[in-house]
Amino acid sequence: MTTDLLVCGLGPAGRALAHRAPAHGLSVTAVDPNPARRWNATYGAWEDELPDWVATATVAATIARPAVWGTRRFELDRRYVVFDVAALQISMDLGDARVVADRVAEIGRSRRGAKSPEWVRLSSGAVLTAHRVIDARGLTRSPARAEQTAYGVVVSRDLWAEPLFMDWRPDNGAAPDETPSFLYAIPLDADRYLLEETCLAGRPALSGAQLRQRLRARLRCRGIELGGDEAVEHVRFPVQGGRPGARRFGAAGGQLHPATGYSVAASLAAADPLASGSSIWPVSARAVHGLRSAGLRALLALPPADLPRFFDAFFDLPPNLQRAYLSGRDDLPGTAHAMSTLFRNLPWHLRRTLVTGTLGLSR
């Protein structure tokens, strides 16, 4: 049987697409090695990025004005939400979709011509056909790809109660010339906070052991001693390698923001247009993706000690320019304006470093 849409991978992007496709009259098959696996990562998003179909019950916490520390404190005039990940996954039910528990071994087209069904060969040897096959299996790790890593612990609000989107203050014990990391501190619900030491992008990125040591040092400097029995979160994923295209989705398909690592909200928002057959990669979006990739190369080029100053300059931008760069995936004028304004506002030595480093680093 040839289905209308075959989705490879049931992470947040693939599940969102498989969930929304029936609303557009499509029959769906979804393939994943472990389709019942529960997600255990923490997902956050800017509230204004979310499509209307995302249920309010999937939001566990909302931060009205997240704080940022570079070398000084900023408050962002933009609401940030943290998902109840279990509720988000359950809310995207797969309804009448056919779900196959297997691994995709190969994706291709029939040799009979472009209008013939596309096909997927599974590890079991079975072959499935569909009018469209979308690869949403994420990105594979590679030493050539920069990664984001993090180590976090869950604590009670009695121990911590200040939401911090980014805190680059140098109290985590790292030497000035070491790869930098920041503290991400966000509420998980009414009772708990996630405190996470994060390497935004590194090639190689900091290890979990290094981040654990830094988090403990940072909290100790602030008068907090961990007991050792806290729930722990580990994060490691590539921020390079996604390729915009009509048959890839999620991180694999370029929805991941190369310079921030955020992808869930962008994938949720793009699920309906992709299901309906619309292009989610107009020329403007492809150009923005290229500029964001240049932004990642710029971050990798910066000397560690200068990164907090870079974020001072970024969060000094007007809110509309911050939003254009962080969320305007097809806003080419806004993204270009944000990046050029940021560049002009940086000290001369940082501008010189960004130009030489960005041109010298490979993608």
Concise account of the structure shown:
The chain is 29% helix and 25% strand.
Describe the overall structure:
The mean pLDDT is 93. With 363 residues, the chain is α+β, with helices and mostly antiparallel strands. It folds into three domains: 3-139 and 241-276, FAD/NAD(P)-binding domain, CATH 3.50.50.60; 147-238, Alpha-Beta Plaits; 283-359, no CATH class. The protein has helices at residues 12-20, 85-91, 208-221, 264-276, 283-301, 307-315, 319-327, 332-345, 348-360, and strands at residues 2-8, 28-32, 44-46, 59-63, 67-69, 73-75, 80-83, 98-101, 104-109, 118-122, 127-135, 147-156, 164-167, 182-187, 192-202, 232-238. It is globular and about 60 Å long. The chain is built from nine helices and 16 strands. The chain has a seven-stranded mixed beta sheet with strand order 6-5-13-14-15-12-16, with helices on both faces. It has a six-stranded mixed beta sheet with strand order 8-2-1-11-10-9. Strands 3-7-4 form a three-stranded antiparallel beta sheet.
Provide tags for this entry.
single chain, 363 residues, alpha+beta, FAD/NAD(P)-binding domain, Alpha-Beta Plaits, 3 domains, six-stranded mixed sheet, 9 helices, globular, FAD/NAD-bd_sf, Lycopene beta-cyclase
